[in-house]
């Protein structure tokens, strides 16, 4: 009697655990959609509008938009982590993160939350801006692939924001280049459901909904 009473409950909890592990992609490889990344870097993480295509080019050649990428091409044996392929030689560490310049663990640079990645990338950029006059010099892939015209990396992306407060943000330059976008009819659903959009092109990460 006891076992027959607990059996449905047990089945339910097993099912829930299974569904949870299925929905939360812990450490699973994720590919950030290129144009979504361009929009997020511009609107969510406030990178300058005139830098976006260079960041997209950099990410294309560093991680190919793989948020969990881990690179091992460095001759000194160090590893590069995440979307921006941030090095564990200095910027992140594998223990508590305390001793690293970004105060992060390298593992946290390989999850799908790129907020800490962007903060760290900005810090790296600032340091190299100070050292060399151009922050992008910190990234080998940028030096190899992104020093010329990078417009093609975002040319097909709609980077305009649906939020009215963005009317005066740095994306203004983009809209001036594409004035026809303003003539598009407004989709009233879009501004409401915007936060539900998955930035990843592969699976739908339910974990994202909690941000
Ligand atoms: C992303 O990087 C991880 C770690 O290197 C790798 O296991 C995974 O296959 C990559 N995903 C894609 C889509 O390339
Ligand atoms: C671009 O995105 C904005 C905001 O989401 C939207 O209002 C507009 O219609 C879009 N334009 C095109 C051409 O898709
Ligand atoms: C946008 O900025 C311009 C000047 O930069 C200002 O005149 C205008 O009032 C601003 N519009 C809004 C909606 O804040």
UniProtKB/TrEMBL annotation:
InterPro entries linked to this entry: Glyco_hydro_22 (IPR001916), Glyco_hydro_22_CS (IPR019799), Lysozyme-like_dom_sf (IPR023346)
UniProt keyword list: Antimicrobial, Bacteriolytic enzyme, Disulfide bond, Glycosidase, Hydrolase, Signal
Known EC number: 3.2.1.17
Pfam family, one: Lys
Bias type Polar residues, positions: 186-198
Biased composition (Low complexity): 160-171
Domain Glycosyl hydrolases family 22 (GH22): from-to ranges: 102-120
Family: Belongs to the glycosyl hydrolase 22 family.
Name of the featured protein: lysozyme
Species for this entry: Daphnia pulex (Water flea)
């Amino acid at each position: 009697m006891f076992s027959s009473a607990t059996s449905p409950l047990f089945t339910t909890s097993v099912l829930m655990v299974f569904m949870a592990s299925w929905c939360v992609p812990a450490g699973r490889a994720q590919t950030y959609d290129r144009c979504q990344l361009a929009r997020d870097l511009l609107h969510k993480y406030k990178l300058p509008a005139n830098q976006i295509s260079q960041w997209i080019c950099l990410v294309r050649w560093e991680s190919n938009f793989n948020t969990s990428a881990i690179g091992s091409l460095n001759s000194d044996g160090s590893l590069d982590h995440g979307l921006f392929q941030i090095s564990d030689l200095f910027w992140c560490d594998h223990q508590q993160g305390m001793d690293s310049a970004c105060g992060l663990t390298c593992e946290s640079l390989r999850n799908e939350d790129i907020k800490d990645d962007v903060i760290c990338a900005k810090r790296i950029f600032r340091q190299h801006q100070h050292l060399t006059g151009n922050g992008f010099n910190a990234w080998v892939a940028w030096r190899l692939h992104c020093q010329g015209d990078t417009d093609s990396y975002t040319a097909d992306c709609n980077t305009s924001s649906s939020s009215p407060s963005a009317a005066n943000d740095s994306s203004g330059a983009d809209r001036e280049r594409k004035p026809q976008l303003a003539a598009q009819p407004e989709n009233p659903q879009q501004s409401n459901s915007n936060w539900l959009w998955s930035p990843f092109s592969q699976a739908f990460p339910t974990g994202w909904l909690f941000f």
